[in-house]
Specification:
single chain, 125 residues, mainly alpha, 2 domains, 6 helices
Length: 125
Amino acid sequence: MVKPYSRDLRDRVIEGVEGGMSRREAARHYRVSEASAIRWVEAYRATGRRSARAMGGDRRSVLPSERAWLFEVIDAEPEVTLMALSARLAEERGVQADASMLSRFFKAEGISFKKKRARQRAGPA
C-alpha cells in the first residue's frame, strides 16, 4: 500500500519554493514529481497545511439519513435517472452524492430499476 511522503520532505519543498526556487526546480532538486510539488505549495499557500491529508478509513454513506426523501422522489417520479436524482439531492437537500453512490444505496436497499415489460423486444416472428 502506498503511503504519503514525509512531512520533512514536504517542508523542504515548500521552503525551497518560498525561498526563491520555482516549483519545478524544487521538484527536481528533491526528486518528487512536479505535480506533487505544485499541489503541496498550493495547499500551503491556500490553507497553511504542510502535512498529508488522512488516507483510508471508513467513509460512511450520507444517504441513509435521506432514505425517506429518496423513496418519496422515486415514488413520485419512477423514471428519474440517477444523475438527475443526484443533482436534485444536491440542490434541494445540500447532500453531495454521485450516481454510483446512489446506485450502491439502492442496490443495498433491494431496489432495482428494471425496464418496463412493454418496452421489451418482441419475440421471434
